[in-house]
Design brief:
By secondary structure, this protein is mainly alpha-helical. The protein has a single domain, classed as Growth Hormone, Chain: A (Up-down Bundle). 80% of the residues lie in helices and 0% in strands. It has 18 helices and no strands.
């Protein structure tokens, strides 16, 4: 079993799983302004619609862990990916708020399952390989984000209808799955080891809250970058996916080099400096006089936030408050609540205070992450 988990095929399949999850999620980003215009939604109504995606994902995550134990990562991830590819064209073409809400719930459930399965596979493969791989795995999520966001934006800029643009991206996702699915884990590779979800406590709760903030910033880039660029910076709708594309590009660079950087500077130092840089990037984006400066801000957010979540997964493996088999699923669920529920929260805040103020609140939260660095070092003396 260890030989299989540590094999290059298992590592490549894990990277492909993260790529698929990132590409699927990012393909949705350029569609948000089209959905808002097609369904005539204000910011609060759009935020409520986005909440359906988050609810679906959070409902599916604990269940997907249970299903992976029984049926294996391979089968659950394959079905989740197929559902994602079926729902994307619905999101790209529907004008009904009710149908969009249902589609986003299903999309969120499939996305939550795919994310959870990818992380379950990643933890098993990294442990068997006995070397740091998590930042690289998450880097493939970001690379998928680049392909999804810029790919859909490019197709839309060429005059393709949103429906046909998403069909092309769905075809790319299914092609990737067909090449690598057989190397995802079988049920025999994932024997049951007790409950797969428990609410985090102690240091795990702290790590989960920090992970929530990191993913909240990512969710803001995903669901609100295009809206911000079109409404506040007068960018053309067809090009508005560039905001998330720039963010995803620099995040990919940060994650692909993250293992190297952490080895030399240490987990806590990378965490503190990265969160500070991300806060500066969000502030620049919120106060930018025009869209080129806003894109620079998105780039800084990407490079700064790149390794926050992978570091949380590394730190949760160093704590003793909860068994790892309980801590990892709990961290995943609480953390991903930020990227899935957070954007809906931003919508309501933006409706009351404006989108600029909502972005500045995110910057303040990222500074909070940086300030927790010394406390984490005291709580986890073995954290380098």
């Amino acid at each position: 079993m260890t030989l299989h988990l540590a094999s290059h095929q298992a590592q490549h399949a894990t990277r492909a799983a993260f790529f698929i999850a990132g590409c699927s999620l990012a393909a949705w980003a350029p569609l948000v302004p089209y959905v808002q215009a097609r369904a005539s939604l204000n910011e609060a109504q759009l935020g409520l619609l986005l909440l359906c995606l988050g609810i679906g994902s959070l409902c599916a995550m604990p269940l997907s862990g249970l299903l992976a134990t029984r049926f294996g990562c391979r089968r659950v991830f394959t079905w989740a990916t197929i559902i994602l590819c079926l729902v994307l064209p619905v999101l790209a073409s529907s004008q009904s708020s009710g149908l969009l809400a249902l589609a986003l719930f299903v999309f969120g459930a499939a996305l939550g399952s795919a994310d959870c399965i990818a992380n379950i596979q990643a933890v098993s493969v990294e442990k068997a390989s006995n070397r740091p791989l998590m930042s690289g795995f998450h880097g493939l999520f970001s690379l998928g984000g680049i392909i999804g966001a810029i790919g859909v934006s490019a197709l839309l800029s060429m005059g393709l209808a949103p429906l046909y643009a998403t069909l092309i991206i769905a075809g790319l996702i299914l092609l990737t799955l067909s090449i690598t699915w057989r190397h995802l884990l079988n049920p025999s590779n994932n024997p049951p080891r007790g409950p797969l979800f428990a609410f985090p406590n102690g240091i795990v709760l702290t790590l989960g809250a920090l992970c929530f903030i990191a993913f909240l910033a990512e969710g803001a880039m995903l669901d609100w970058s295009a809206v911000y660029l079109t409404h506040m910076q007068d960018m053309a709708t067809a090009q508005s996916g560039l905001g998330y594309g720039v963010f995803a590009f620099t995040m990919t660079i940060g994650r692909l080099t993250g293992d190297w950087l952490i080895y030399r500077a240490g987990l806590i130092r990378v965490l503190v400096s990265g969160a500070t840089l991300a806060a500066a990037g969000v502030t620049l984006t919120a106060l930018a006089p025009n869209w080129p400066f806003a894109l620079i801000g998105y780039a800084l957010v990407g490079i700064g936030a790149a390794n926050i979540a992978p570091i949380m997964y590394s730190l949760v493996g160093k704590q003793t408050a909860m068994p790892e088999a309980l801590a990892v699923p709990a961290l995943t669920t609480l953390g991903y609540a930020g990227i899935l529920v957070g954007p809906a929260m931003i919508g309501f805040v933006a409706y009351v205070t404006g989108l600029t103020a909502a972005f500045l609140i995110i910057a303040a939260l990222l500074l909070t992450v940086a300030l927790t660095g010394p406390g984490l070092k005291r709580a986890l003396p073995n954290a380098e």
